[in-house]
Amino acid sequence: MPTTTNIIFRHSALDGIDFKESIDLGLVCAAFDHQVNLIFVDAGVNSLIAGQTAQDLDDKNQVDIIKGLEFYDIDNVLLEQESVENCSLEVNQLIDSVQIKSRQEILKLNLAADHLVIL
Amino acid sequence: MSQQFSIMISASAQKTQAHLTAIKFVKALIQQQRAIRSIFFYQDAVSVANQFNSPPSDEPQLATQWRNLANDHGIELQACIAASYRRGILDEHQAQERKLPINNMQPGFKMTGLGQLAAAMSDKSVKLVHFK
């Protein structure tokens, strides 16, 4: 059975370097055949709003990588429903290929994971 | 299958007590004869591997404490290479590549990739403990 690693994103992709370094860890874990679940909670759900650019920050668009994660065998990009609601977001504002799960469902996933990383 | 521990520290050595707490945790593991698979420094935690850090002598000398622990118990101190370069910590190889006259990697620390951490995490007998 593969190692399951859940990585939690609590901050926006444009808020510091946590997003980049969490994604890096996720990609490397996937390369080591982990089942990687990327879980966005709290302000982290803002990372997945469609149409964002980092142009004004002179940075590359980090969120674009989310769209290509399936090529790295990362299929589970999950958002916590309660956080989506708290940030007043609608599903149609978010990028495709993400799944919304309740806090309870995410808690179950976290309890079942071998590793839980929150950077 | 006896349990092993991998330690990950991601917090700054200057801004938090994470390193001190991690050092105490590692000492407790050693005291209880528990196996330590790896100690991995990620994100701002790599700052401890900057040789130019010069904390006042009456403050914790974290790099020295880490190095002593590693030397005394044969544990490798792994600093994430990407996180280190991003924060201006260069080993000899990278300094030469960039034609810089000196490097600033603290002796006793080793640059490694995230793959080292992922490999340790792949081992089902390993429990990852994260200090942030």
Explained architecture:
- The complex is a heterodimer of chains A (119) and B (132).
- Chain A is of the alpha/beta class and 119 residues long.
- Chain A has one domain (4-118): DsrEFH-like (Hypothetical Protein Ychn, Chain: A).
- In chain A, 29% of the residues lie in helices and 20% in strands.
- Chain A has helices spanning 18-31, 64-67, 81-86, 103-112, and strands spanning 4-9, 35-40, 76-80, 99-101, 115-118.
- Chain A has a five-stranded parallel β-sheet with strand order 4-3-2-1-5.
- Chain A is globular and about 45 Å long.
- Chain B has one domain: DsrEFH-like (Hypothetical Protein Ychn, Chain: A).
- Chain B contains five helices and five strands, in the order βαβαβααβαβ.
- Chain B has helices spanning 18-31, 62-73, 81-86, 92-97, 114-122, and strands at 4-9, 35-41, 77-80, 109-112, 126-131.
- Chain B starts with a strand and ends with a strand.
- Chain B has a five-stranded parallel β-sheet, sandwiched between helices.
- The model of chain B has no long low-confidence stretch (mean pLDDT 95).
- Chain B has 132 residues and is of the alpha/beta class.
- The A-B interface holds A 3, 5, 17-18, 21, 24-25, 28-29, 31-34, 114-115, 117-119 and B 8, 10, 42-43, 82-83, 86, 113-115, 117-119, 121-122, 124, 128, 130, 132.
